[in-house]
Design a protein that fits this description.
The structure holds 2 protein chains of 2 kinds. Chain A is mainly α. Chain A has a single domain, classed as ABC transporter involved in vitamin B12 uptake, BtuC. Chain A contains 14 helices and no strands. Chain A has helices at about 1-5, 10-30, 35-60, 65-85, 90-115, 120-140, 160-180, 180-190, 195-200, 205-230, 240-250, 255-275, 280-295, 310-325. In chain A, helix 3 runs antiparallel to helix 10, helix 3 (about 35-60) runs antiparallel to helix 12 (about 255-275) and helix 11 crosses helix 12. Chain B is α/β, with parallel strands linked by helices. Chain B has 2 domains: about 1-85 and about 175-260, P-loop containing nucleotide triphosphate hydrolases (Rossmann fold), CATH 3.40.50; about 95-175, no CATH class. In chain B, about 40% of the residues lie in helices and about 25% in strands. Chain B contains 11 helices and 10 strands. Chain B has helices spanning about 40-50, 75-80, 100-105, 115-120, 125-140, 160-170, 190-205, 215-220, 240-245, 245-255, 255-260; strands at about 1-15, 15-25, 30-35, 55-65, 65-70, 85, 175-180, 210, 225-230, 235-240. Chain B has a 6-stranded mixed β-sheet with strand order 6-7-8-3-9-10, with helices on both faces. Chain B is globular. The chains are: A mainly alpha, B alpha/beta. The interface of A and B includes residues 191, 198 and 203 of A.
Chain lengths: ~325, ~260
């Protein structure tokens, strides 16, 4: 067992399998009812959205306010595809739909990224904001998307297995990317673009790659959303949705993947705990966010990742404090 | 054989001629100094050489391993790939990354695995990463920085940040190293040590070095040839002894009266 714990890859694998089995057991025994499962779906979709936006904004330093736009492309592409193929396709329709949605979002990411990523900071934020509005307005005006009323009756294929596969898959791929020379190139762009360029990093290439990977993943999140919640309409993917995703990223810590995951879970839990205070729910939610930002402006995790070393350090601090008391 | 050749290089910002009609040649393995009063255009020459600015006119060619490259319109990352590395006068480290990451990023262009291996952590990834870390530590060792490898770059003392800039430049695997005021802000002892290190580096890594420096003890001690700039133009070129005696240089630094006296 000790040998297992020593290898980081195996450790990660054991952790993931454990999460999968625990949730599966909860589902089978009926402890996790439909309501809880819907929350879990939201959490997983938010984890994908936040991790992918973190790659763009936290790791590569490009402020994007249009993430919901990519999500909506994934959602609509997947939904329209699934509703037009013969029912005989079964789960194949779903998988092909997710892939198609992700690729469509990625292609739009590429087309939009090439010209806009020349802009910096505030300008890029405005350009991406405009982009997501354009996408929303196209969805409102097309016939195939059924306008403002949106699409309903999308076949539901999302169960815990697919949810787990896609969420874990996206997070692992992004984590791998970040822990490679390509991820370091992205971080160099964030730190100092001129220095990065001079040290041999093709800065435009890496900004575009981060943008495409981010858009592709957001497309997956959108497709999962469409195939679980039956109904999609353009309003769901407006500016506020983009801001929601950005809130998760900033709260978790720009440049920390585990921070994004933690924040996605925390916010979902917070929001369901506040269900009983319906009238002042949004007020309390906002107050909590403000409080967290005052006491931890760098986000929950800063730019650190959850690791055994960090947990040990944390544990040491705790015992140290106890002794002093 | 000239490794670096600059012909009639000019750069104007609107009406201001920051660099005008500058020519310069550096042979393989030489250690050359570029000096001049503040605002003479020395750093602008570096920025033109590394592709941060595009020349208004003139030619820059770089020859290495029999490959001739025209640098005029190249992006900085291509120039880095061709074999030119630099340090910055106003330190430009990746401040919020570790010392090791700063060096590893500079090795990016020579990392031998693609995007797919990066995403999937294929065996090539582990193999190359191991090599990158080893080489980075070796370089950091030369500058006594390896025990600080996990420190954030911004937390290093000033002198060590300057040294890390040199390590980072070396990590790109250059054949021509451009040093922009490497001794700025260093005390006498540190400068003397740095002078030795630069001379040793050239032999060890088979480098050609062009350095901008205001500290004359360093320049006169190690540079084989010196170019002098003033108001954007090249006013003198020669061995250290000739430069010391050149009336135009004395005039540029000390003024008309002293030169005539």
């Amino acid at each position: 067992m000790k040998e297992l714990v020593k290898k980081p890859v195996l450790r990660k694998g054991v952790g993931l399998v454990a999460v999968f089995i625990i949730v599966q057991l909860l589902l089978m025994t009926g402890v996790m009812n439909d309501y809880y499962f819907a929350t879990l779906v939201t959490i997983c979709i938010n984890i994908i959205l936040a991790s992918s936006l973190n790659l763009i904004t936290g790791f590569t330093g490009q402020l994007s306010l249009g993430h919901a736009g990519f999500m909506s492309i994934g959602a609509y592409t997947c939904a329209i595809f699934m509703m037009h193929v013969p029912p005989g396709w079964g789960v194949g329709a779903f998988l092909a739909g997710v892939l198609l949605g992700a690729v469509a979002a990625g292609v739009v990411g590429l087309l939009v990224g090439l010209p806009t990523l020349r802009l910096r900071g505030d300008y890029l934020a405005i350009a991406t904001l405009g982009l997501s509005e354009i996408i929303r307005i196209i969805m409102v005006n097309l016939d195939i998307t059924n306008g403002a009323a949106g699409l309903s009756g999308i076949p539901r294929f999302v169960n815990w297995i697919w949810l787990f596969v896609f969420t874990a898959g996206v997070v692992l791929l992004i984590a791998n990317f970040i822990n490679s020379t390509h991820g370091r190139a992205c971080k160099a762009v964030r730190e100092d673009e001129i220095a990065a360029d001079t040290m041999g990093v093709n800065t435009t290439r890496y900004k575009v790659i981060a943008f495409i990977v981010g858009a592709f993943s957001a497309g997956i999140a959108g497709a999962l959303y469409a195939s679980y919640f039956y109904v999609i309409k353009p309003d769901l993917f407006g500016f506020l949705k983009s801001v929601d995703i950005l809130v998760i990223v900033v709260l978790g810590g720009l440049g920390s993947l585990s921070g994004s995951i933690l924040a996605a879970i925390l916010l979902a839990v917070m929001s369901s705990l506040l269900q009983s205070f319906a009238e002042i729910r949004m007020v309390l939610y906002a107050v909590m966010l403000v409080a967290i930002m005052i006491f931890r402006p760098q986000g929950l995790m800063g730019s650190k990742e959850v690791s055994l070393a960090l947990l040990k350090k944390f544990g040491k601090n705790l015992t140290f404090k106890k002794k002093r008391v | 054989m000239a490794e670096l050749s600059i012909q009639k290089l000019t750069k104007s910002f609107g009406g201001l001629m920051a660099v005008s009609n500058v020519s310069l040649e550096i042979k393989n393995g030489e250690l050359v100094g570029l000096i001049g009063p503040n605002g003479a255009g020395k750093t602008t020459v570096f920025n033109l050489l590394t592709g941060i600015y595009e020349p208004t006119s003139g030619e820059i060619t770089f020859e290495h391993d029999g490959r001739k490259t025209r640098l005029n319109k190249l992006k900085p990352y291509r120039i880095s790939k061709a074999g030119i590395a630099r340090t910055f006068q106003n330190i430009r480290l990746f401040r919020d990354l570790t010392v090791l990451d700063n060096v590893r990023i500079a090795m990016h262009q020579n990392a031998g695995y693609g995007l797919l291996a990066g995403f999937l952590h294929l065996p090539a990834h582990a193999l190359e990463e191991k090599k990158i870390v080893e080489e980075s530590i070796n370089l950091l060792d030369i500058f006594n920085l390896s025990d600080k490898k996990n420190e954030m770059a911004r937390n290093l003392p000033y002198g060590e940040q300057r040294r890390l800039e040199i390590v980072r430049a070396l990590a790109t695997g250059p054949s021509l190293l451009l040093l922009d005021e490497p001794a700025a802000g260093m005390n006498l002892g540190e400068t003397a040590q740095l002078t030795e290190t630069i001379a040793q580096l050239r032999d060890r890594f088979d480098l050609t070095v062009l350095l901008i420096e205001h500290d004359m003890s360093l320049v006169m001690r190690i540079c084989e040839r010196i170019y002098v700039m003033d108001y954007g133009s090249m006013i003198a070129e020669g061995a250290p002894e000739e430069i010391k005696a050149n009336p135009r240089v004395i005039k540029a630094y000390l003024g008309e009266d002293v030169a005539n006296a």
